[in-house]
Amino acid sequence: MNDDMKRTAPNKDRPNDKPGYAARAAASKILAAVVDRKTPLDGMIDTEHGNPAYRALGPADRALTRALVLTTLRHKPMIDQAIASLLDRPLPGGARALSHVLAIAAAQILYLDVPDHSAVDIAVEQANADPRNKRFSGLVNAVLRGMTRRKAKILDELESVSPIPDWFAERLTAVYGADTAHAIGRAQLQPPTIDISVKSDPEGWAARLGGTVLFSTGTIRLDAPSGAVSDMDGFAEGEWWVQDAAAAIPATLFGDLTGQRVIDLCAAPGGKTAQLVMQGGQVTALERSKSRLRRLEQNLARLQLSAETIAADMMEYQPEVPFDAALLDAPCSSTGTARRHPDVFWTKDFSDIEKLAEVQYAMARRALDLVRPGGIVIFSNCSLDPLEGETVVERLLADGAPAERAAFPAGRPDTLAPFFDANGAIRTTPAAQLDGKTGLDGFYAVALRRTDG
Ligand SMILES: C[S@@+](CC[C@H](N)C(=O)[O-])C[C@H]1O[C@@H](n2cnc3c(N)ncnc32)[C@H](O)[C@@H]1O
């Protein structure tokens, strides 16, 4: 039996076989893993290695589960407030599983185009099917029916609620000011576009794929993509790869790399490696995770681009000859990508940012050892917190690392000018516009020149 048939042959006598039940049950489990156990979402919705409840679903139910979890996480503070406003008293501390069933149902009622009665009925059945929650099935019914009746008023009340957690909202306000912090929060609610980088002919591919070209990076933006990315024109032929416009900025800042030996130090899945090859570099892609390096190799093979690949920890790797240039796209809190990965706000906290900042500091120092004197290191990451960007560089320079800030090569589009800070580094946030378009990840990128030797 194939996946589609499993989805279309329910046994109506068993509520758990009702259409849509399994998708909601999987969504509630996955939400619990994100919120209670801080498990990143991506791994759980992987078709090969993901959560078993997700893998057991057919393609249509998998898409529904993803939509349910993403929508719930994107609106989590609103949903929590809406549920709390309908309860006489808070749910008992042990009722975590129940709270996730309620949240998934509330996301459908408030934010998704799902008939209210299906959302309510299936949530009641989920409660009945779990011995821990059976006694609450009446409460689930009452809360969710109340929500459907008062939907318009509740949505109105939720207008002023920030979609990001307090710890991060406070941090953003302290760093960027209240208006930008608010705009970053609102940007989080917009469905993300698909941005792609092309090997050549952006205008031609934009016309073929129904997108528009963002002049600043040559990115093609698909505002209303339909179907799987891998089925789109040019994907199998290796003409393009998916890459947010902001993520495309750091590598382009090297300019022409013809004749230069370049190392991409945290390379997988390889979007920036592909750019470095396209910019003419003789590229070595280094990555600590063997499985992620395999993915990078597959991506490069599809794109018919060649680079040397090495599975190694950059902190231990010793090249025979130092490189002319290095890209350090360091692991980070990924808070700049929360539009597409809304789980980051619920799986991370400020202590993670502090720990990652230490790792990045050590990595940036190491990256300087791997280039020749006079060589350039571009340090970048997709965190919105300056502790993982601006402060790392300030610390390096204050501590006497053999480095100075370097200018990016001339010739970049003027439209990138608003993203340069006073020190000549790039800072983007989801509150900004690129080429007049909203929808951009948060990124930081700086160029450093090795000064000793
Ligand atoms: C932000 S991702 C890189 C994204 C990549 N540059 C791109 O554009 O596709 C960070 C990567 O660094 C890798 N990484 C983390 N620590 C590392 C280390 N010490 N040495 C090498 N790679 C490392 C992670 O496994 C992860 O794949």
UniProtKB/TrEMBL annotation:
Q: Where is this region: Disordered?
A: 1-21
Q: Which residues form a coiled coil?
A: 286-313
Q: Which GO terms describe its biological process?
A: regulation of DNA-templated transcription; RNA methylation
Which residues does the record give as S-adenosyl-L-methionine binding sites? Answer: 266-272, 287, 313, 329
Locate the SAM-dependent MTase RsmB/NOP-type domain: which residues? 172-451
Alphabetically list the UniProt keywords.
Answer: Coiled coil, Methyltransferase, RNA-binding, S-adenosyl-L-methionine, Transferase
Q: Name one Pfam family in it.
A: Methyltr_RsmB-F
Q: What class of enzyme is it?
A: transferase
Matching SUPFAM superfamilies: NusB-like (SSF48013), S-adenosyl-L-methionine-dependent methyltransferases (SSF53335)
What the entry lists under Gene3D superfamilies is as follows: NusB-like, Vaccinia Virus protein VP39
Alphabetical list of InterPro entries matching this protein: MeTrfase_RsmB-F_NOP2_cat, MeTrfase_RsmB-F_NOP2_dom, NusB-like_sf, NusB_RsmB_TIM44, RCMT, SAM-dependent_MTases_sf
What molecular functions are annotated in GO for this chain? Answer: RNA binding; RNA methyltransferase activity
Compositional bias (Basic and acidic residues) spans?
1-17
Q: What PANTHER family does UniProt report for this protein, alphabetically?
A: NOL1_NOP2_SUN FAMILY PROTEIN _ ANTITERMINATION NUSB DOMAIN-CONTAINING PROTEIN (PTHR22807:SF61), NOP2 YEAST -RELATED NOL1/NOP2/FMU SUN DOMAIN-CONTAINING (PTHR22807)
Listed name of the protein: Ribosomal RNA small subunit methyltransferase B
Q: Which organism is it from?
A: Martelella mediterranea DSM 17316
Q: Which gene encodes it?
A: rsmB_1
